[in-house]
Design brief:
The structure is a single chain. The chain has 228 residues and is of the alpha/beta class. It has two domains: 63 residues, no CATH class; 154 residues, HAD superfamily/HAD-like (Rossmann fold). It has ten helices and six strands, in the order αααααβαβαβαβαβαβ. Strands 2-1-6-3-4-5 form a six-stranded parallel sheet, with helices on both faces. The chain starts with a helix and ends with a strand.
């Protein structure tokens, strides 16, 4: 995605609405800028909703341009396809636009595996706020303590823990192993498919070998848990 172009367009938009230059220039990334404008308290609620809608459309146009160059990792596809036999349901919490994410999932043949996709337009605050995680749980009708979350960013881990969801880190993003662990990740995996080794040992699966008191208690049947 053309992140520099996205940031430039957001800078012009927010500046036109009176957001101080000192605040704007302190943000080197477009998504971080969008996230922090929502929590900075510089705009009233009406102004904030209107400007964030415009900002999100700017981001969505550029995200849409990148669909043809964006693919799910093979390990992630394999992971998702294994979830039904483990009795787990799946949802996505993303800072991207839902139509963009849905287009990628459909093209890659895994859209049906996700019961809920929560995007930036569904929430007021992006990760590390737990708002998206909690909304995903609500839509799937699964309590947070019955869920796990997997992410490659510190914000993913922080959002999961704030929602009282056990969080696993996965390598491959911008965060290091140390950063993910310091944020509270239960473990840091080589790729998301490694989580199958944990889940496949968990009741209602056979006995868990990775002992941790923070893992969700094993109760109920196929609808008793979710990965978000």
């Amino acid at each position: 995605m053309r992140w520099d172009d996205a940031r430039d367009e957001l800078l012009r938009l927010y500046s036109s609405k009176g957001v101080p230059e000192t605040f704007l220039e302190a943000h080197s990334g477009a998504m971080g800028l969008y996230r922090d404008v929502a929590t900075c308290g510089l705009l009233n609620d009406t102004e904030l909703r209107a400007i964030q809608q415009k900002a999100s459309r700017i981001l969505e146009v550029l995200e849409s341009e990148a669909i043809s160059r964006t693919f799910m990792l093979p390990a992630a596809v394999e992971f998702v396809r294994h979830l039904p036999r483990l009795g787990l349901r799946a949802g996505i919490v993303t800072s991207n636009a839902v139509p963009v994410v849905s287009a990628i999932l459909t093209r890659d043949g895994v859209a049906a595996a996700f019961e809920a996709v929560v995007g930036r337009d569904d929430v007021e605050r992006l990760k590390p706020s737990p708002e998206g995680m909690l909304l995903c749980c609500e839509r799937m009708k699964v309590p947070p303590h019955r869920c796990i979350t997997v992410g490659d960013m510190v914000g993913d881990i922080a959002a999961g823990l704030a929602a009282e969801i056990v969080a696993f880190g996965v390598r491959g993003g911008m965060a290091s192993d140390v950063q993910l662990r310091d944020a509270g990740a239960e473990a840091v995996l080589d790729d998301v498919n490694d989580l199958l080794k944990v889940l496949n040992c968990r009741s209602p699966f056979p006995s868990l070998k990775l002992d941790s008191p923070r893992l969700p208690p094993a109760r109920g049947g196929p609808s008793s848990g979710a990965a978000v």
